[in-house]
Amino acid sequence: MANGKYWNEKIETIPVPELRKHQLRKLKEQVKHCYENSTFYHKKFNDAGLKPEDIKTLEDIQKIPFTVKNDLRDNYPFGMVTVDPADIVEIHASSGTTGNPIIGAYTQSDVNAWQELMARSIYTTGGRKEDVIHIAYGYGLFTGGIGFHYGAQKIEAAIVPISGGMTQRQIKLMQDLGATVLCCTPSFAVYLAEIMIKTGVNPKKDLKLRIGLFGAEPWSDKIRERIEADLGIEAFDVYGLTELCGPGVSIECNQHKGLHIWEDHFIIETINPETGEVLSPGEEGELVFTTLTKTAIPMLRFRTRDISVINTETCACGRTHARMMRIRGRSDDMLIIRGVNVFPSQVELAVMSFPELAAQYQIVVDRPGALDTFAVKVELTEQACKNRKLDLNVLKRDIQGRIHSITGLSAEIEIVKCGELPRSEGKAKRVLDLRKGKM
Ligand code: ADP
Ligand code: ZN
What we know:
439 residues, alpha/beta, 13 helices, 21 strands, globular, binds adenosine-5'-diphosphate
């Protein structure tokens, strides 16, 4: 199937009108399947006075009520399954970053589709049969490890299924087994690079790494620059979530101008998270996905809470599937500090613009009295720690100014020595909101 730069050229470069025709046909099938096989969707449709036949065009999708994370939690574990339980072949669960776990169940056809999407995604970034793919996403209930495993297996690369943790051992095995592709969270990549440098391993000389596939948490272009420079690789953003399949929903191509959403499997919309109003491409909002091929737990208009912008312009890589820009954050990660909306990614943008600072930071919000306090802890790089000429008061003032110009808020800055902030081997925890329970 693979041909030069495409894993599946016919689908990846399908003319847009044909893609829309395919989507409409699949949408009608998916809606009918949900109406007939799910008490949850049947009731939702009845309550909205909607019948499957009312979906005649792609725009008609807007008549369908949204599905939200709590629907999955309320129907835990199998209330939203629409197939014979005997047809379930695999079960995953979300890491529970924001509450109780959410179950992802798969039929064999769902696993096959996931594997195809992951193969396509890895191939898009340049991963090939000749590669040694080091998978440091967690294996287990989390979809990260197994999702990458499925894709790497399909392109017939050599897989090192190391999973997360054991940082020193990871570095040794990357050297000894000749890893060329690294898959993990961006925060773990930063950590790996840091430990390598600290233990005298030169990633550019002692490793054969060429590319990295990083996702599962928000990260910025500044972090990308750091990872690329430290590890000597080309870094790609990869996005997905348990509710849709896991990783493999969208992938960055070599143009690095957004992530192609595999639209033959998903319909994408953006909405205003407060009003639910559907937005146009180019307008920032919450991503809403409808699955077109999922059979075990199909999702109709699933609200992700992830904030991004859709770009439907043609991409120079030749793929016709729409792109989503880097995720700015989750709507539920958004902090309201003294009435001002702040995303951790804005703080990251400010912090990462200082070469003296390491790629670690922590936001601490509290309310000791009537007013919110907003503090940002940052860490010096090893080099900056050694620089006796560095004036920390000036640096502090500059960081404060940068954060203020981006968020409109003045933050208290605490500069700590290198290695003092907590590291993460999975998804990073950047925010400590101590106001909870005090409001
Ligand atoms: P949890 O919600 O418990 O973290 P998942 O493992 O399903 O469970 O994580 C999916 C979520 O992770 C997405 O909804 C999104 O918020 C985040 N995520 C995944 N990939 C990326 C990415 N490339 N950039 C930013 N955020 C991402
Ligand atoms: Zn592209």
